[in-house]
Amino acid sequence: MHRFVPAAIAAFLGVLTALASAPAFADRYDVAITLGAAPRAHVEARLTPPDGILFMHSHAGGYEWSDYIRNLRASQNGQPLELERTGKESWAAKGTIQSSIDVSYDVDLGFTVPEREGAQRGGQSFGNSLYLVNRVLFVMDNAPGPRDIVLHLPPGASIATPWQRLGPASFQAASNSDLVDNTLVVGRFPEIDVKQGTFDIDFVLPGATAAEGGLMEPVVRNVLHEYLRMFPETPPFHLVMSYFQGVEVNGEGYKNSATLTFPGSIGLANRDLWANYIAHELFHHWNATLIFGADSGADEGSTEWFSEGATEYIANRTLFRSGTIDSGGWLRHMEANVALYKFWTWAAPFAGTPIVDAGSKTALPRPKGVEAKTYNRAGVYNGGWVTTFCIDAAIASATNGRRDIDDLFRALLDNYGLKGRAWKNSDLIAEASKLAGRDMAPELTTWLEQPKPIPVDKCWAEAGLKGYNLDYSGETRVAPDPRGGAAAKRVLHKIWGGG
Q1: What is the C-alpha to C-alpha distance for residues 290 and 286, in angstroms, rounded to an integer?
Q2: One domain for residues 167 and 245
Q3: Residue 85 buriedness (CB in 10 A; 0-12 / 13-18 / 19+)
Q4: C-alpha neighbours within 13 Å on the C-beta side of residue 373
Q5: How many CB atoms lie within 10 A of CB 297?
Q6: 442 with 404: CB under 8 angstroms?
Q7: Does residue 199 sit in the same domain as residue 147?
Q8: Which segments within 276-333 are labelled E, that is strand?
Q9: What radius of gyration do the chain's Cα atoms show?
Q10: Does 382 lie in the same domain as 233?
Q11: How far apart are CA 248 and CA 245, in angstroms?
């Protein structure tokens, strides 16, 4: 018994030290938000700055957050406390801070009213609802520990945030990063909450009508259901995803939230477009986030074809499998991808560029600020789509329809993603070869590393399809081949139905 006493005393002293250095309470923010034509916020905070420093998030996404702060004041024990500006987004309290200080300020949210590029990185007002990146709301300190937030909103307003909910309008963020590196949506808006096991996405639609939300809900639910069928071992996950009409097709990711903007309205006439955009971006949670390729040094850009092209392939296929589009719609997607890829391999500005290099190199000097991935978009996205389809058809053909691209994705997740390992193209080829039961290296290496076109006709034949292509005009037509044999029909059934 005696020999354990020093250890026990040391542990007890450690606890006392931790308690002494910890703040007496969490920093607290009361945030009153006004919606409408002149959106604004008023914040009352009790902070415990250990070094007397207050600050905001640094400039990001085209926004200087401190530019929107008005009437910043501080007090201690009811007495005014002078704040001296020490930088663009930082202040220092003059005098000794004994414990906590009270801070108040207004936030001018007028910048959210006009539509602009990059709204997903700052904020957008919709009159009866408001989307914000939280960086604009909070003046912070360096105190450790969580932050408590209470929102004061108009009656009937809803709240969507990834913060931990403590009450109807009260929340807790685990840290400064959790506080500001996320988004907030308040007001009246459609909301789709998809939960399956430990997977939870809160899909919110600021600015949309209830009817538009009704159109989108089955698409989101069916797409996620298919992805979770593909990946039953998906780790626990919670995300707030905002989607709203903006001036550009773009997206932005945050700590536990993400945002998509789309220039078109949500309707039946363009459902194929917005549904495919959503399906593509949602699948990036698995392909690009959980399953990530080596993309630095000598491998820079080498796996972009799979991150983007395979994601687009699965998105198109998922819309068909989930009933959002019919087989004709799926074939139209195939025609568009094959046509653009074939034109890319034919046209002089892209000559000599293999798919593996399309994410990092260009045949000609590119305009300033244009990435290789953008210059070679038809090689990365459409060429990646065609390559993925051919891999899918090859695996299904070699296994008589027992295995397909889904098995390759699961192998990459199990052997690389869940182990925190980045995969290389040689790893993907090895996994595909195991699944097919034959060495696929000769053909896959040629498809990826040689600039000559992939033999799409062979892939079509394996999948029971017949296609026609005009390279120079970028036109392709594809249909099921009535003369395809039973084996090819099984492959097509596998691709279309997964059964």
Answers
A1: 5
A2: no
A3: exposed
A4: 14
A5: 7
A6: no
A7: no
A8: none
A9: 27
A10: no
A11: 8
Clarify whether residues 332 and 447 are in a common domain. Answer: yes
Q: Say whether both 479 and 346 belong to one domain.
A: yes
Q: What pTM was computed for the model? A: 0.88
The contacts of residue 47 (CB under 8 Å, 6+ apart) are 27, 54, 100, 101, 103, 139, 140, 141, 143
**134 and 201 co-located in one domain:** no
Q: pLDDT per position in the chain (499 positions), as tens? A: 333 333 333 433 343 343 344 444 689 999 999 999 999 999 999 999 999 999 999 998 899 999 999 999 999 999 999 999 999 999 999 888 888 999 999 999 999 999 999 999 999 999 999 999 999 999 999 999 999 999 999 999 999 999 999 999 999 999 999 999 999 999 999 999 999 889 999 999 999 999 999 999 999 999 999 999 999 999 999 999 999 999 999 999 999 999 999 998 999 999 999 999 999 999 999 999 999 999 999 999 999 999 999 999 999 999 999 999 999 999 999 999 999 999 999 999 999 999 999 999 999 999 988 999 999 999 999 999 999 999 999 999 999 999 999 999 999 999 999 999 999 999 999 999 999 999 999 999 999 999 989 999 999 999 999 999 888 888 999 999 999 999 999 999 999 886 6
Q: For residue 135, give the CATH number of its domain.
A: 2.60.40.3650
- Length reported for the chain: 499
Contacts of 16 (CB under 8 A, 6+ apart): none
Residues 6+ apart with CB under 8 A from 205: 189, 190, 191, 192, 212, 213, 216, 242, 243, 244, 266
Give how many domains the chain has, as a whole number. 3
Give residue 81's domain range: 29-174
